[in-house]
Amino acid sequence: MRTAYPFRFGTLIMEYDGEMLERLLCVETEYEITAIETEQRSEFSDRVYAQVNEYLAGQRMSFDFGYRLAGTEFQKKVWEELCRIPYGETRSYKEIAEAIGNPGAGRAVGMANNKNPLLLVIPCHRVIGADGSLTGYAGGLAMKKYLLELEKEHAYVKRGVKPPPDKLRSSLHS
User: Fold this and answer.
1) Distance CA 28, CA 136 (A)
2) For the range 126-129, what are the long-range contacts, defined as Cβ-Cβ under 8 Å and sequence gap of 24 or more?
């Protein structure tokens, strides 16, 4: 099934099979949701949409719906590592490559990020340049900046401490 919902950053498109999300992406440009896409909404897709909105409002730090990943073994290894990045933190492409045991694969990690089928669920927005700069993101750099700031703020609020200044925060505000 394929459905779409209006979204803070454009249109949120979902592909799912039963209770398993297979694709979640954002279309930034003008996109008209079709009658068929509206008809294919279900309790499951409504639940995914509600959780995405809770996440964007800072009311949720993770998702609790089923999903299925389709990709190469290398891509899946990268995506699994991305899921290990704690909410409110970031890693560089090089750090991800090292974590999966392939230290020279920074560019390949970037390509795997680019092929991530589950925007937000697999948190590829948490990957930044080695110098702390924002790099490409399927949802657009404005969305990436928003997500990183949101997560950083809420991660510290949950711990009851003020976030320290760092190169990520300064790069987000420059």
Assistant:
1) 14
2) 126/82, 126/85, 126/89, 126/90, 126/91, 126/151, 127/82, 127/85, 127/90, 127/91, 127/92, 127/93, 127/96, 128/90, 128/91, 128/92, 128/168, 128/171, 129/92, 129/93
pLDDT digits (tens, 9 = 90+) for 99-131: 999 999 999 999 999 999 999 999 999 999 988
Q: Are 1 and 42 in contact (CB under 8 A)?
A: yes
For range 166-173, the mean pLDDT:
45
The pLDDT tens digits of the residues spanning 55-74 come to: 999 999 999 999 999 999 99
Give counts: helices (H), strands (E), the chain. 7, 6
Q: Are 63 and 46 in contact (CB under 8 A)?
A: no
Query: Which amino acid is residue 99, in one-letter code?
Result: A
Active-site residues, by number, are 124
Q: What gap in Å lies between CA 44 and CA 19, rounded to an integer? A: 6
CA–CA dist 81, 83 (Å, integer) = 5
Q: HSE-up of 102 (CA within 13 Å, CB side)?
A: 14
The pairs formed by 144-153 with CB atoms below 8 angstroms and a separation of 24 or more are: 145/172, 146/9, 147/120, 148/90, 148/172, 150/56, 150/58, 151/61, 151/87, 151/88, 151/126, 152/88, 153/58
